[in-house]
Amino acid sequence: MDPESGLDSVRNVGIRNGKIVAITEKALEGKQRIDARGLVVAPGCIDLHEHGQEPRNYEFQAHDGVTTSLELERGTADVDGWYAQREGKSLINYGASVGHIPVRMQIMHDPGTFLPVGDAAHRAATAEEVDQIRAAVAKGLQRGALAVGMGINYTSAASHAEIVDVFKVAAAYHASVHVHLRYAGMKEPTSGLAAIEEVIAAAASTGAPLHVVHITSMGLKDTPRLIAMVEGARARGLDVTTEAYPYPAASTAIDSAVFDPGWQEAEGITYKDLQWAQTGEPLTAETFEKYRKQGGIVIIFSIPESAVREALANPIVMVASDGMPITGPKVHPRGQGTFCRVLGHYVREEKVLDLMNALRKMTLLPAQRLEKRAPVFQNKGRIRLGADADITIFNPHAVIDKATFEDPLQFSAGISYVLVNGVPVVKEGATVSEVFPGRAARAPVSQ
């Protein structure tokens, strides 16, 4: 099944040196053979939004059908170092943006680790600091960052002017800006609708491509209206895209700016709707204050199921996991089960969308989002001659997510084989040990 050509037929696929070199009805002979009768042979999934860029996360993602895992929302401040750390050690392909969040943290000497908790979250940058931020983002793009990452909700003191300035840098390098919006929910004037207006205006005025991350967790009940804003911008010539994950809950750090005073009213939830990731316990006012001082991850039950279904049914909304680093036995299941949950629950069981459209949202659309800046993606997300042999082979009658909020560290089921650059990393449903075929997915280095 190839979402680019629409091919949905029985074929033999030949692979040589990590590339697809034959797609034919005729018999083929090779050194290795995979019997895929009764299975779907599809492009490997490209996850635009995965924070867990470590070997354990990569293994869970491979079992979920992912062949390329990208950290494009938060990103990194050190593009060269980030890629060097993973070279020759990765089960699947990997890539990152240069991130406004880590750059701002570095320049403003924020004490936070993953997300800002000090000045980078709560103080406006000086004119000199904004210049330094712009220069650091430009350097990251010169070093081959795939995009610019931005989490305005986490850097809430960043001025509109600072955001526009970063968009201008992205535009100069033809890089998409992957944005966690400034606000979530429906409370005006700090609504998700107001937040998406901010970045669509920035994109329109600068020419930078825009990608709105996890639109359901920002729009909540208003998700259809936010998707309509993206559709309207696209219809009028703007390069705007978006994504969603198939779960009714978000997840982030409890000590981040997302939980500054007013969060309950903004998102229409309260303490009991938060789950402490380490133990699975629902929070109270007392434990919220305790854990906010301590720091850690919470799961936020705020997204209506209707919003999830609306996003998955819409043909322009890509699928991306927003998976979290695995720091203990409890973590949001989205990093382990997103793609098989769509294929099993929402395609086969609920029929919210058909299989080809689901594959398109997970493979071709993410590749097309990045291929203008990073030509490596012109050969990903497709089953065609010359494409990279990043291939997922699954049983459409059995594929399903197994990760749950109660027991999240479980491999998805029904993924029979996963090939990364032609090398099996999942074989007959089991991880292949001691293979590291994952390669850097990177834009050209210009300086």
Structural key phrases:
5-stranded antiparallel sheet; 447 residues; 18 strands
Brief characterization of the structure:
The protein is an alpha/beta fold and 447 residues long. Helix content is 32%, strand content 19%.
Structural class computed from helices and strand pairing: alpha/beta
**Whole-number count of domains:** 1
As residue ranges, the low-confidence spans are: none
* Ends distance: 39 Å
Number of helices: 15
CATH superfamily: Metal-dependent hydrolases
What is the helical fraction, as a range of percent?
25-40%
Q: What's the CATH architecture name?
A: Alpha-Beta Barrel
CATH classification, class level: Alpha Beta
Total number of beta strands: 18
Radius of gyration: 21 Å
User: What characteristic shape results from the CA principal axes?
Assistant: globular
Most strands sheet:
8 strands, parallel
The amount of beta strand, in percent, is 15-25%
Report on this model:
The radius of gyration is 21 Å and the shape is globular. The protein has helices at residues 55-62, 79-86, 100-107, 119-122, 127-142, 160-172, 192-206, 215-219, 223-235, 263-267, 285-294, 305-313, 334-349, 355-362, 364-370, and strands at 12-16, 19-24, 40-43, 45-47, 66-76, 93-99, 148-151, 177-180, 210-212, 240-244, 250-253, 274-276, 297-300, 317-319, 391-394, 415-420, 423-427, 430-431. Helices cover 32% and strands 19% of the residues. It has a single domain (43-248, 303-431), classed as TIM Barrel, CATH 3.20.20.140. The protein has 447 residues and is of the alpha/beta class.
